[in-house]
Amino acid sequence: MMRRVSTILALVAACAVFVAPAPAPAVPTWAPASTATIHPGVRTVSDGNQCSANFVFYDATSIYIGQAAHCTSSDAATATDGCEAIINPGVRSVTIQGASKPGQMVYSSWSTMQARGETNPDACRFNDFALVRIDPADAGKVNPTVPFWGGPSLPAASTGIGQKVYGYGNSDLWFGISALKPHEGVSLGTTAGWSHDIYTAPPGIPGDSGSAYLDAFGRALGILSTVEATPLAGSNNLTDLARALSYMRTYTSFSGVQLAAGTVAFAP
C-alpha cells in the first residue's frame, strides 16, 4: 500500500514539473514615437460620440487601444452608471484618428456588467473602460507612448491627496490648440479603489473622455470618465485602470491582455 501511495505521489510530482503558467505574449514592434499616427490621445468616434483614446494594449494575437465605455452609450453625455445606462449593442466599429481602417470594439465594461447583473455600486459608477482592436493593416502605425509626458510604465496602485497627475486629451472643443491637450494637476484621493478624483489645468472636458492619465511616477493611473459638477465643481473622475483591467481579465476571454509600456521615458 505504501509503495502504491509513493508511486502516485511521484507521478503527481512529475506531472507538476511540466505544468507552468502560459508565457507572456511577445511585445510587438512599435513604430517610432516621433512618427506613429496611432497613440494615446488620438480621437476615437463611436456612433457619432467623439472621445480620446487612452493606453495601448496587446496580447498574443492583437493590438488594442482603450477608450471609455460610455462612448458607445445612447446617453453618453449624461450616463454615469454603467449598470443602468442605455448601450448601443450594434456599435462595434470605431473610427480611430491616424488609422486607415476602423477598429473593432471587442470589450465594454458596461456591457459586461449589465450581462453579469453587477450589483457593486462602485463598479457600476466607476468601471468605465472599453477595448478597441486595431486593424492589422494599421499595426505598424502604433506607439504606446503618451504624447508630451512620455510613459506609461506599470499600472499605478493608488494616489494620495495632493499627488501629481498628468493627462493628455484631444477634445474637438479645444479647436486643435496643442497647448491645451496636456493636463497637469493633483489627485484628490481614491474612492473605493475604483475611482480617482483630480483637479487639473486645463480640466478635462467633453471629448476628452477616455483619455489617459499618469501618476507622479509615470505609471498608468486611470481613464477620464466624468466631469464633476458637485461636490467638487470642475474636477474630473478617473476610472482606476488596474481595477478595470482586473475586471475584464476575470470575467471575459481577454485574460492575456497586457498594458504596453511607452518607448519614451516619462519626463514631466
Radius of gyration: 20 Å
Strand order of the largest sheet: 2-1-5-6-7-4-3-15
Query: How many separate domains make up the residues?
Result: 2
Quickly give the structural class: alpha+beta
How is the biggest beta sheet arranged?
A: 8 strands, antiparallel
Categorize the overall geometry.
globular
Number of helices: 4
Strand residue content: 25-35%
For the secondary structure, the number of strands is 15
Instruction: Sketch the topology as an H/E string, one letter per element.
Output: HEEEEEEHHEEEEEEEEHE
> How confident overall, as mean pLDDT?
87
Helix proportion of residues, in percent?
10-25%
Q: Which parts are unreliable, with pLDDT below 50 for 5 consecutive residues or more? A: 1-20
Report, as a whole number of angstroms, the end-to-end distance. 68 Å
Please specify the SSE layout and strand pairing.
Layout (H helix, E strand, L loop, with lengths): L1 H17 L24 E4 L2 E4 L3 E3 L4 E5 L25 E4 L6 E6 H8 L4 H6 L3 E4 L19 E3 L8 E5 L13 E10 L3 E7 L10 E3 L4 E9 L8 E5 H11 L6 E2 L9
Parallel strand pairs: 8-13
Antiparallel strand pairs: 1-2, 1-5, 3-4, 3-15, 4-7, 5-6, 6-7, 9-10, 9-12, 10-11, 11-14, 12-13, 13-14
Give an overview in words.
The chain is of the alpha+beta class and 268 residues long. 16% of the residues lie in helices and 28% in strands. It has 2 domains: 43-144 and 245-259; 153-240, Trypsin-like serine proteases (Thrombin, subunit H, Beta Barrel), CATH 2.40.10. The chain has helices at 2-18, 109-116, 121-126, 241-251; strands spanning 43-46, 49-52, 56-58, 63-67, 93-96, 103-108, 130-133, 153-155, 164-168, 182-191, 195-201, 212-214, 219-227, 236-240, 258-259. The strands form 2 sheets. It has an 8-stranded antiparallel β-sheet. A hairpin with a 4-residue loop joins strand 12 and strand 13 (219-227). The longest helix is centred in the N-terminal third of the chain and has 17 residues, at 2-18.
